[in-house]
Amino acid sequence: MHISHLARILIYFIIFASIGGTIFYWGVLNLSWFRIIIGALFILGALLRLINELHFRKELDSWLKRNYNKTILFYPAKQKIQNEVKSKIIPFINASIYQVYYEGPKIRGDLKMRHVIELMNIDKRIQLHNPSIIKVKEKSLEVISLKEFVSDNIDDKLATALIKKINECT
Known about the structure:
The protein is an alpha+beta fold. 55% of the residues lie in helices and 14% in strands. Helix 1 runs antiparallel to helix 2 (33-66).
């Protein structure tokens, strides 16, 4: 059973607000300022997280609309594969294509880290160490896997096929 991200956030809010409300009520009954403050902090923390997540949802929807039909080259993989892609493929693809890759242990590129993680949550076919082309649609993503094309050594024939496949998606 798949629960949407927003439903999980609401469940989190209800649970922590209920715990906070219970502690707050217990503190009021016993005139314990410590319990009242702890309960209020639980409620405040749950409320702030809910507001933050709703704000991020709005920002993500806006980002998806702004980047409708944009293409993302997603290639966080082994360093050797990334170096091959950067030297043999990146110079020959359309400059408007966004890139996501590893820089050391962190994911870097043209997108915010939080957007990358959310794209991975939206479509489970987007995975680390699985290079792919992502085409942004209004409420969904079109994912084309490049796993069969990418190996430790990218020869000229393979590079040409990859460049052609990537440029076709733009």
